[in-house]
Amino acid sequence: MLPQTIAMAFKAIRTNKVRAALTMLGVIIGVMSVVVLVAIGQGTTASVTDSIQGMGTNLLTVNITTRRVGQYGGYGGGPQGAAPAQPQSAGQQRGTVVLSLSDILGLEASEAIDKISPMVNGSVTVKAGNKNTTVSMMGVLPAYADIRNQSVQSGRYIVQSDVDNRSARCVIGAQTAEDVFGNTNVVGNTLHINGRAFQIVGVLESKGSSAGTSSDEVVILPYTLAQRMLGSTTIGSFYVSAVSAEAVTQAQTYVENYLYKRYQNTSAYRVSNQTEMLNTINETTGQLTLMLGGIAGIALLVGGIGIMNIMLVSVTERTREIGIRKAVGARRVNILLQFLIEAVVLSGLGGLLGLVFGWLLMQALRTMLNMTLIMSLGVVELAIGFSMAVGIVFGLYPAGKASKLRPIEALRYD
Amino acid sequence: MIEMTGIRKDYRMGDNVVSALDGVDLAIADHEFVAIIGPSGSGKSTLMHIIGCLDAADEGSYRFDGQEIGDYSEDELARIRGRKIGFVFQQFNLLPRMTAQENVELPLVYQGMRGGKRHRISETVLERVGLADRIDHRPTELSGGQQQRVAIARALVTQPALLLADEPTGNLDSRTGREIMALLHELHRAGHTIVLITHDASIAAQAPRCIHIQDGRVLAAADGQEVS
User: Fold this and answer.
1) Which of B6, B7, B193, B218 has the most CB atoms around its CB within 10 Å?
2) How close B75 comes to chain A (CA, Å)?
């Protein structure tokens, strides 16, 4: 009985192709938007995750937010595992703390910590010949290259003697080299940074842009010289790399304990690791994906209402057919199943077509807009399952109405 | 075959209650060919619906083929319609999107019969009504007489206990009507029980027995045939 009922449903759909196509359109658009929007959301998550992991999973970022010591804003206790607060002196408790370079380099004593580099940054104007542009300038130690996975495509990176001698040497980002010189073959050339002449010693490997900020539009200077140029005497932020991904937590605790000892205030500094950052971003993009999927789900729901509408019209139109079928022995369940299966076939077919169109649209977006899109099996199953469920839910009422028609009334209908 | 006693059926029309059948007693034996005749509004259509299990009486007892079916559920009535009664309607009532053969097979589909067996049986029956060469035609490709033959084939395909024909010649010209009547006579001779509902006295006169109905009641043997 069931295969015959399914065959009947396909036959009914075939005999009214245009109407069936229009009815399915709602579900097609719904499923297509679910698939594509979720793929965009998941693609974004993946590319952001990728670029964060590209920065190195062993990385700790430390930001110092205040120079004050003690109970200013921070009422919390010490960080986990910290020794009880021991003010070094009564005078220092209400004074200020200035971290020196040797203070933070002293953290390398921890076996969990591999390398440390402070960083100062600011915006500068670079000029060569008659071309100039504004780029971000970073002052770092040589260790920074390893900590942030930076490498040079030609020349060399900043070396320790540059830092010690405050040499007027710089490493230039690939894009900035293109912008100012027109090519990247610029090692040995002179670049004016805020009016001061620097010798270019290296060109950075291009990393491409992520989330709107290009890591190729940059000049890198020796830390000591950059600090002097920016008129900065304190360390605002520094980077720490742990010896391995597993040692990140230990390294973080070590850094936090040290900073707490110095500041007596947990809100004076912020130590964040890449995993935390990843989690935050994944949470955000996850919500984005959910929201996109939800909007698309509404489109699918509207498609379902379209199916119900057409099925109700179809039941009225086919009242006489229902009467004939009942006269020759169809029971209520036969009629119910006939119309229900018709609705499910319509919505399921719409779901399949939506999937096909969604896939095509994804290919187009990939090639034309160079977007990262990820179509997961889960979404495919969900889209098909949901569209079939839409067919059942919105087919039930019309099918029930058809099955309850009394045979004599149905036969009398013209 | 059919035993009815005190069958009543009322219809509500707004605030008025119209009595369509007002205590009908009726008995039809196996292998009979009976015509039920009456003017429009006499209640003969309602009687036909009740005989055909398309509708249930409000009061009275109806025994069909030995079973008391007065309190059968809708699905049980559907089962009786599907297996024991074959309908022939004035409007033919074929499904327009299906071929002659598919139309004839429809009652067998609802019996759950497999395709191969259905095809064999439906071909045999279509041959019997003289449409062996039309089995793949749709109703719109057939003449009125041919369509009614398909309808008769559909009624016969389940080998029903009763063939119920409601004005079977009403939509046909007189010559085709005579052909259809000849087919019914032939089926009667072959052993089928046939009940024919009509308002046309000349059609009714062709049946061996005639039951007159008026104002929801069976008239006493006005022409003597009822007694025979």
Assistant:
1) B7
2) 5
Q: Distance, in angstroms, between B152 CA and closest chain A CA?
A: 12
- The answer to whether ipTM exceeds 0.90 is yes
Nearest Cα residue to A265 out of A65, A70, A94: A70
Residue to mutate among B95, B113, B118, B125, with most A CBs inside 10 A, is B95
Does A329 contact B79 at a Cβ distance shorter than 8 Å? yes
What integer pLDDT is reported at residue A214 of this predicted model? 63
Residue of chain A whose Cα is closest to the Cα of B158: A328
Q: Is B82 on the interface with A (CB under 8 A)?
A: yes
Backbone angles phi and psi of A13, in degrees to 5: -70, -40
pLDDT tier, A94 (very low <50, low <70, confident <90, very high otherwise): low
| C-beta separation of B146 from B109 below 8 A | no
Which band of pLDDT confidence, cut at 50, 70 and 90, is reported for residue A156?
very high
> Which pLDDT does position A4 carry in this prediction?
80
Question: With b meaning 16 or more CB within 10 Å and e meaning fewer, what string describes A258-267?
Answer: bbbebbbbbe
Cα–Cα distance measured from residue B34 to residue B4, given in angstroms and rounded to the nearest whole number:
15
- Tell me which H or E stretch contains A239: strand A237-242
CA distances from A337 to A125, A320, A370, A392, A405 (A): 75, 17, 46, 10, 14
- Across chain B, mean pLDDT equals 89
**B75/A contact by beta carbon, under 8 A:** yes
Contact at CB, B95 and A321, closer than 8 angstroms:
yes
* Cα separation, A390 vs A31, whole angstroms: 11
pLDDT of res. B138: 94
Write the single-letter amino acid at B127: E
A14: exposed, middle or buried (Cβ count in 10 Å: 0-12, 13-18, 19+):
exposed
Nearest CB to A331 within list B75, B107, B158: B75
Q: Is the pLDDT of residue A74 over 50?
A: no
* pLDDT tier for residue A213 given thresholds of 50, 70 and 90: low
- Maximum distance among all Cα pairs of chain B, rounded to whole angstroms: 54
More confident residue, A53 or A368: A368
User: Which residues in chain B touch residue A334, judged by CB atoms under 8 angstroms apart?
Assistant: 110
Question: Where is pLDDT greater, at B176 or A233?
Answer: B176
